[in-house]
Design brief:
single chain, alpha+beta, D-amino Acid Aminotransferase, Chain A, domain 1, D-amino Acid Aminotransferase, Chain A, domain 2, 10-stranded mixed beta sheet, 8 helices, binds 2-OXO-4-methylpentanoic acid
Length: 361
């Protein structure tokens, strides 16, 4: 007797295809970040205590009541991940989607929202990418950015957790988030996160609260804020769009995950790859004073951010109060440059995927 091995059953989604693809209107040699959306999106509603059947439908506006609770009280979370073309085949490579699924649920729990089965989260993305695979850019430094988002949608003005939620996944071909090294101002007044808060959740409100300080920083010529702890403004935590790394005296140091910092998937990948390269990496608290002292002694060799959207972004300058700390030229930043290329090579199938980070589509 022979046995047939079936693949595990996949969640079934209803698929409604667009009749008017916009693909031919896209200039793939000139892709801005986050402004172009592929033909389709995934939508799924949570009602009566369970997730309803998901749908893949043409990208378009949602119809929402002005009483939609997330608009008032910010019960909203999101994720960001990327897909790239495999350099050796026609496959599309999703980078660490299960880690994003896991973090999405971690955020959901903190915000009192329903969790999404991780397989369903990944399958929704895989099927969406499969349908719009022609939209995945092949140009260098470009990727397909995937943005899952979930928000409370009760039409109710009272302050309580929603009973109804909507999850949407958008896909967006993107070029680099930052096209050059960034100048960063270290927070000495405003706070992003504090013990017991939502700092390590990818909650929409975490980002909303940073808009005003980020605008003030931009007015002074800085690209981003490097957040410090909410008690003393003494320890550096993360940058508005990415985790932060420093190289001091040949040792890579990044703030430890103490509850106020996002558990970055790129952060974790960078740490793993540095260890593989034999570089000493330490996760611990870092004071601003330590950074300035290392800078004054010429020991602060590198500073960079790591995130899905930003990938590895070099920091050109740190500013604190009225002082400026200019970093060494990018050409001298061997560790960040090397880890970026290792990471990009794995994402694009140019280096073996020894950690099983990739899901092939
Ligand atoms: C990402 O890197 O994917 C993010 O979500 C950060 C930012 C664009 C908000």
């Amino acid at each position: 007797m022979t046995f047939t091995h079936f693949a595990p059953p996949k969640p079934m989604f209803e698929v409604i295809k667009t009749k008017h693809s916009r693909l031919s209107q896209v200039d793939f040699n000139n892709i801005p970040f986050g402004r172009i959306f592929s033909d389709h999106m995934f939508v799924m509603d949570y009602q009566n205590g369970q997730w309803q059947q998901g749908q893949i439908i043409p990208y378009g506006n949602l119809q929402l009541s002005p009483a939609t609770s997330a608009l008032h009280y910010g019960q909203a979370i999101f994720e960001g991940l990327k897909a790239n073309r495999d350099s050796n085949s026609a496959d599309i490579l999703l980078f660490r989607p299960y880690d994003n699924a896991h973090r999405f649920n971690h955020s959901a729990v903190r915000m009192d929202m329903p969790e999404v089965p991780e397989d369903l989260f990944v399958e929704a993305i895989a099927q969406l990418i499969q349908l719009d695979r022609e939209w995945v850019p092949s140009t260098t430094d470009s990727s397909m950015y995937i943005r899952p988002v979930m928000f409370g949608c009760d039409n109710f003005i009272g302050v309580r957790s929603s009973d109804n939620y909507k999850m949407v996944v958008l896909t967006s071909p993107v070029g680099p988030y930052y096209t050059k090294p960034v100048r960063v101002v270290i927070a000495d007044k405003f706070v992003r996160a504090f013990d017991g808060g939502t700092g390590e959740a990818k909650a929409a409100g975490n980002y909303g609260a940073t808009m005003y300080p980020a605008s003030l920083a931009r007015q002074k010529g800085y690209d981003q804020v490097l957040w410090t702890d909410g008690v003393e403004h003494k320890y550096v935590e993360e940058i508005g769009t990415m985790n932060v790394f420093f190289v001091i005296n040949n040792e890579v140091i990044t703030p430890s995950l103490d509850g106020t910092i996002l558990h970055g998937v790129t952060r974790d990948s960078v740490i793993t790859l540095f260890k593989e390269m034999g570089v000493k990496v330490t996760e611990r608290r870092i004071t601003t004073e330590e950074l300035f002292e290392a800078h004054s002694k010429g020991l602060l060799q590198e500073a960079f951010g790591a995130g899905t959207a930003a990938t590895i972004t070099q920091i050109e300058e740190l500013a604190y109060k009225d002082k400026r700390y200019v970093m060494p030229p990018v050409q001298a930043r061997t560790l960040a440059t090397k880890v970026k290329s290792e990471l990009e090579n794995i994402k694009r199938g140019l280096k073996p995927d020894t950690y099983n980070w990739l899901v092939r589509i």
